[in-house]
Write a structure and sequence with these properties.
6 copies of one chain form a homohexamer. Chain A has 141 residues and is α+β, with helices and mostly antiparallel strands. Chain A has 3 helices and 5 strands.
Chain lengths: 141, 141, 141, 141, 141, 141
């Protein structure tokens, strides 16, 4: 007999389209433009963001699942996507108020939104793509 | 001997990240919101746009190329990408002034920007992805 | 002034997951297995199908769109995806009754389902991927 | 001199196309349909599954490789793909007999098939995509 | 009754990995380096090429297929891939002897290799990707 | 108050196109051909390599970033891509001299090139794709 617990990591992907700009409100416009370049454009730019949410857990004997991914999808929509999809991250998103809109900060705030609503398994990782060339991962550390 | 002319269609891909919103300035806010839904968000949203520019022509005997794709890339940057990348399509892009910022309209205006600068071959098609789920093609018709 | 009509080709992608098998009911089991190989497996196999529906038309002045892609998405769901997603194409799909479940045949039958419901623009092409390595296109010819 | 051991993680991807359904044989049809929804369809549905097998090890001095990936590919074919590709996971696959056909369960059973046949390096992770939107990882825990 | 002939375009994808360099043997090294830049590197560079072969035809009533794609795959391997995969296009490939190794030229020569061996349907298009950013299409014109 | 340190893992992707061959200089040609097969081709073959460089760190309060990814991109170009892109890995790349050109070895040598130049955060992982079907990861162990 195996002594493994059969711990699996299950991931659901979603996406949202949003506008943002990078700027530090404590800096002058010139400082922002010098540091952030075109990412500081005052009229914003935007991205198709891809988000991957990973849970860690053991499959339930009755369902074969750690958590029903359709429920996870619902949680992702209610607490994250409905607030950020087709929005301006700097202006419209309550959980980003007072935070710089970098993906490093966004992923940490999304974690805070999701974690209280994961009923089965444990939130393990959130991976957020800004473009296919740059992305960030956060493990709740 | 073959009587073929060896006409090929050569494509270069690029991308840009931009903000936009859909709205008709002749409509009220309510009408815009009713028709365009979340795409009308006043604070804008955004996308990673992918653009494919296709030329039709015959390869030059000395170079093996219809047009040097590095030159095509330069043309795409000078006349399109430098104007639209990390910009707000509604506010910042000269060639979109007075046009609704739908991909159907954007692709036609990009054609007008590029066509005068294609030196070898003939501009055949521009394909513009707004998301991986929706895109538009224009053949100059 | 340009004499172009600004005819564009606008595409919406969707996907469905379905089971099927290839077999000719007029052939014996041996003939089917010999010709279709593992694709004839009596207990079925399946795919993640990707479908791209392309309309040809001119953008409306008030909306900037040929057809509202959200409406096109609804039409695709009502007349195709709700009937075929998470189904067995050989057994469950009304519009495939009596047809062999090859992608060559599926794409033609999907065209018949969609064409009567395209209100703006004209149905131009349906492209159906069975895997990333094989796909079929149909232009209503 | 570096004190690193140069431990690398080398991955080989493959894919298989299979039919399955989700259902609990201890539940009634109504219970299954209520919980699993369209995934419980009695006539099955299917997917293009992508599988990534990762080994951990140190490159051999003579070959520059942890394990010859062509041999790993052969092992994957002999012990997994030949048994599951173009099959019905609920009916045809010996190593899934008596198991619910969820990806959480499939990935654990595939691990058991492969592990005894990894000659060089150590089986580190199996990642299994059901669709591009949902996948599972298993590290043998 | 429909008067359509149900003409479909069926495509099979494959890939090959090869080395090449761009240079004109009638030019000096300096001229080649000046024009082709790093693509002229004397020791070669290389690519993962993706090739899509499209046939035009009508599905056979007995098979539901224009041409058995496994047979098409075999033809692609015998007459193209076995000659070019893991090869140096400038030195090793018989059908490229005396031709500059640009994708514009490669796609035309591959057409000549494949066309005589298409038994069902008609060779319609070959699409060849050098990178995800540049590709060429040839329709036998 | 949270006791998390908000440690994130930020990744930048790049690519390069290069030629290489697998062979052991201590073996005869026959031995090399027997073991490495077509990968030993004396005239080389090539690939489009994708490289992902991941840093671990905490976002700076003033910039919202672990390390400015444009600077990371510059470092990747100066110390890796400018040396290996459009090159022959066996003949042209200084940091691969005397090493077999397997991806297991390449990824370790790239780590040595990059690590001294990471100013913010800590180099965490380098992932190198040779094809979409095989890739290697190295964590500096």
């Amino acid at each position: 007999m195996s002594d493994k617990k059969n711990i699996v990591y299950i991931t659901r992907k979603a996406h949202f389209n949003a506008a943002h700009r990078l700027f530090n409100p404590r800096w002058t416009d010139e400082q922002n433009e010098q540091f952030f370049g075109k990412c500081a454009n005052k009229n914003y730019h935007g991205h198709n963001f891809d988000i991957y949410v990973t849970l860690k857990g053991v499959a339930d004997e009755n369902t074969g699942m750690v958590m029903d991914l359709r429920k996870l999808k619902d949680v992702m929509h209610e607490f994250v996507l409905d607030k950020i999809d087709h929005k301006n991250i700097n202006l419209d998103v309550d959980f980003m108020k007072g935070k710089m809109a970098s993906i490093e900060n966004i992923v940490v705030e999304i974690w805070k939104q999701l974690e209280p609503h994961i009923e089965n398994g444990k939130l393990h990782c959130i991976k957020l793509f800004e473009t296919e060339n740059q992305f960030v991962e956060y493990y709740g550390e």
